[in-house]
Amino acid sequence: MTQLLPARGGTAAATVTSGLAAGPARRPHVRVAVIGTGFAGLAAVHALREARIDDFVVLERAAEVGGTWRDNSYPGIACDVPSHLYSLSFAPNPDWTRTFSGGAEIQDYSRQVARRLRMDEVTEFGAEVLAASWQQTRQRWQIRTATGEFSADVIIDGSGGLSDPAYPGIDGLDRFRGTICHSARWDHGADLSGKRVAVIGTGSSAVQIVPAIQPEVAAMTVFQRTPGWVLPRLDRDITGSERRLLRAFPLLQRALRGGQALVRDGVLSQVMHRRPVRRIVQAVATAHLRRAVADPALRAKLQPSFEIGCKRILISSKWYPALSQPNVQVETSPIRQVTEHAVVTADGREHPVDVIVLATGFHVTDAPIAARLHGRDGRSLAQTWGPSPRAYRGVTTANFPNLFRIGGAGTATGHISHILQIESGVRYAIGALRAMDSRGLSSVEVTEAAEHAYTLRVRQMLSGTVFVTGGCTSWYLDKSGQASAAWPATARRYRRWTRRFDIESYHLTTRPARLRPDQAPPQTSPQTPAAAPAAAMAQIGATS
To answer: Is 167 exposed, middle or buried (0-12, 13-18, 19+ CB in 10 A)?
Structure first.
């Protein structure tokens, strides 16, 4: 287990910025290609090394390691999951300075983990994946990146669902002559002091940005489509004595992390399924709103009409006080268009602004990388999915041999650290690699029957959850209205469902002794079609 210590002198670890001059992606072929250096990429590299798999490369489109916390650096950014829980299990950090860590501190943590994993030795930076196609005859992925082309037996996609910002399709936005900042692409050179600022969106990013910039702007208009449920943020400094205690007794930190996971998983996950629990939590959130906002008109604007948990619950003690300041107004009329110097709402009013902040989230159920991954029949992952993403065990998809997507479709819980889901998915992928080694396989591909049965089972579980019945539109929902991003149970159950690579649910292709480009495809042994659905359902039932 890696023990993270503070950088000497209390400074952050050095940034990993350089790719490999003749890096691993320059080789014509590797066994495993890992996409991304966020937490999924870090977890994958650790697991590969633990499994003694050394023939791999990591592809990172940016200039340094990181993911969500590298790309998101807006004012006020912080995590809404407790620090000791929002960390990798193999890399505990006893030196978190707050119970809810800020974004810069989490990115420093990522750099420290990357340094201990020697990520600079295996990562090619600036290597955005432009296209990847499965070559059935050669039993490998042909991958084209911004830095070159090569092939790999296996892809572990750790690009995640919070990597590509979503820009709203507002008429005239491209004609605006002031400054536009997306929360995930913050312009740190923009001067907000004395400016008129429009903030579009009232989700997890906005509740942090607005309180951080409100004191310096001349005027702020927050354009709200739907108010969210907000709970107070019980944040505090972690004392030096507490940090020393955790350094001295690593088991104590593991117990603290386990306790936080137990509470969030065992209690807050009940919000998904039990209306009486939701009513209790809603009462707490309503009391928080009443205490913080004295103006009844503003309070009415901020009162949600859907059940708590339908959208991600917002955690902030500063949001409501910031909205109550005299230089802030909340606008609920829909935006009709943007002109060169103003935002125009549906009621015809013009709101003059100098800066527009887009707190409009990410492409979650329509991740752009899905259009770049092409499976066995030549169709892209996006085409295969259609409007509703799906993944067996949240990791694999029929028609895409040897592709393991981590933290993707059907894994978001909305209540606990997503890192727990990431590590479960990585463990499942590594189980597949070990099975391939032990059985002499060149590829594994989940059967359509197993995928269908699993998808049906998860949708049945989701049907009674607040994600579906809560009366809201959220990023958990795809274009067809399915809550395809959401996981309907506890993180513990997902861990159980991914504990073992269930090879019986997969088409297996044996590895020939020697494979020439002109040879026919290797032998594939699918399940009997008639038996596959029953076998898949039985397996899912056994693990539930």
So the answer is: middle
Q: Which amino acid is at 88?
A: L
Q: How many Å apart are CA 156 and CA 207, to the nearest integer?
A: 33
Query: According to the CATH classification, is domain 8-164+364-543 in 3.65.10.10?
Result: no
Residue at 212: amino acid letter: A
Alpha helices in 160-228 (DSSP H): 206-213
Q: Are 466 and 269 in contact (CB under 8 A)?
A: no
User: So where are the chain's domains?
Assistant: 8-164+364-543, 173-234+259-358
Alpha-carbon distance 87 to 106, whole Å? 9
Distance CA 469, CA 307 (A): 8
Query: CATH for 173-234+259-358?
Result: 3.50.50.60
Backbone CA torsion sign across 138, 144, 145, 148 = positive
Q: Check if 8-164+364-543 and 173-234+259-358 are the same fold.
A: yes
Q: pLDDT band for position 529 (50/70/90)?
A: very low
**For 165-274, where are the alpha helices, taking DSSP H only?**
206-213, 240-248, 250-263, 270-273
Those residues with Cβ within 8 angstroms of residue 197's Cβ, 6 or more apart along the chain or in another chain: 213, 217, 219, 220, 221, 353, 354, 355, 356, 357
Helix (H, G, I), strand (E, B) or coil at 405: strand
C-alpha to C-alpha distance for 56 and 184, rounded to whole angstroms: 29
What gap in Å lies between CA 348 and CA 408, rounded to an integer? 41
Query: What's the rounded Cα separation, in Å, for the pair 357 and 474?
Result: 20
The string of pLDDT tens digits covering residues 86-135 is: 999 999 999 999 999 999 999 999 999 999 999 999 999 999 999 999 99
Judge contact between 361 and 163, C-beta under 8 A: no
Could you tell me which residues come within 8 angstroms of residue 285 by beta carbon, excluding any fewer than 6 positions away? 229, 230, 231, 308, 313
**In residues, how long is the chain?**
544
Q: What is the DSSP letter of 333?
A: S
- Pick from 451, 459, 462: which is nearest to 403 by CA? 451
**Token digits of residue 77:** 């950014």
Q: Which residue in the block uniquely carries the two structure tokens 């912080």?
A: 78
